[in-house]
């Protein structure tokens, strides 16, 4: 089971909800963690179980980073707003860095997130086919 973190800046939360709805079937087969408001919104709009941590600016980005450092996440979908400055930019930079240090895939825009979801879907479908062959 893939362990995926969902993070979205305020200006990108609607895009994250749309993304989660589109990939609801695949995401339902994953363990989801998210920063506070993002997690609550995804759960509210999709019904998917999401472990919601603190809000990003209040420490949630650092909590996600800690999960990366302890190998408790397989990937992160982070809908970033590149056009507006964020008050917690140092936390965001630290999260990006820890993903690079620990070689954890990190999608920071919709298209890269779609690629990661395509990979997850193929992996899940492949696992199901292999399970059917052995049973």
Automatic annotation (TrEMBL):
Domain MGS-like: 1-135
GO cellular component: cytosol
Organism of this sequence: Desulfosporosinus fructosivorans
Keyword annotations: Lyase
Residues forming coiled coils: none
Protein name (Swiss-Prot/TrEMBL): Methylglyoxal synthase
Active site residues of this protein: 61 (proton donor/acceptor)
Matches recorded under PROSITE patterns: METHYLGLYOXAL_SYNTH, MGS
Pfam entry (one): MGS
GO molecular-function terms, A-Z: methylglyoxal synthase activity
Lineage: Bacteria, Bacillati, Bacillota, Clostridia, Eubacteriales
Keyword Lyase: yes
Gene for this chain: mgsA
GO BP annotations, alphabetical order: methylglyoxal biosynthetic process
Function (record text): Catalyzes the formation of methylglyoxal from dihydroxyacetone phosphate.
Regions crossing the membrane: none
Matches recorded under Gene3D superfamilies: Methylglyoxal synthase-like domain
PANTHER family in the cross-refs: METHYLGLYOXAL SYNTHASE (PTHR30492:SF0)
Residues where substrate binds: 9, 13, 35-38, 55-56, 88
Catalytic activity: dihydroxyacetone phosphate = methylglyoxal + phosphate
Family of this protein: Belongs to the methylglyoxal synthase family.
EC number of this enzyme: 4.2.3.3
Keyword Lyase: yes
SUPFAM superfamilies given in the database record: Methylglyoxal synthase-like
